[in-house]
Amino acid sequence: MSGPTLSTEMCLANGKLYHLGTVRGDIANRIITVGSHSRADKFARLLDDSVPVHTIRSSRGFCVHSGTYKGVPVTLIGTGMGVPMMDFMVRESLACVDGDVAYIRFGTCGGCSANVKCGDVGVASLGAAFLARNPNAFGEGGEDIAPYQFFKPAPCTESLAKTYKSNLVAQLGADRVKDVLDVTCDTFYASQAWPMRDFEDRNTTLLNDMKQAYEGQDLICEMETFHLYDLARCCRTRKMFVAAAAIVVDNQEAGAHEWLSPEEVHAVEDEAAVAVLDTIISQELDAEMPRESFPWLPAASSS
Ligand code: R1P
Q1: Beta bridge pairs of residue 17
Q2: Residue 92: is its pLDDT beyond 90?
Q3: Which residue among 4, 44, 105, 145 is the one 20 to 30 A from 158 at the CA level?
């Protein structure tokens, strides 16, 4: 590869994407996206030994690992948290690859229905909605304004979510994997109904309001998936295949925030890792970067 040829519409620093720190050829067409870098690092350790993992840690909060899994080029990206980080990740990763792109997210979430318990994994196969705190409701004259806005769900790629679920069921068992509607929230505390002493959030009825807004579906709350699904449906230049799943680390239905310990979260990650990797390589793409476009992929392994 002769060097980066990134689109001039992107924000660059020294020829690299400003936030991801990547150039063309750093990222494969199949991407696993996670919040925590330790989860990305852990999954990277499961990539093929035959291809040294190509790692970039950006100064803006992203880590990027590229390698192969069962011979297929795959990239793992640790994004940190929230919709803006998902936005940077999707737009800048797309600028690094030609052809179609598949993304699957594997995160953590809160369970908002009795059926979605701590230690379960929710697959956002019913789509992902968006819930936002409305700042107009907190300013002068805002008393009569609804403090939270509920936006309609965006869809996943059904076939990919179905594969994701069946791979997770194979690892965790059917009783621990649930089809859910993801509710992506713009904040962790206020928009996920945490009662806060320090701030006026007007969120005491929020959990019930959420259930009414998205009636009849098992719900999880987290902070990224809607935006991934939303960008997939808005993409003008190629197909984006998207699916997401998340470990349930607390259950608000129980009325209190009781968390899985970090060790318990790591244990579920370990159980699910193979399912996540098997899912991303299962997605067929009509058009993708030729293997010789990846400088980190030894020629010997491309046969
Ligand atoms: C909150 O603790 C964060 O964890 C979840 C939420 O979406 C939010 O970003 O995801 P990750 O575990 O992938 O970071």
Answers
A1: 12
A2: yes
A3: 44
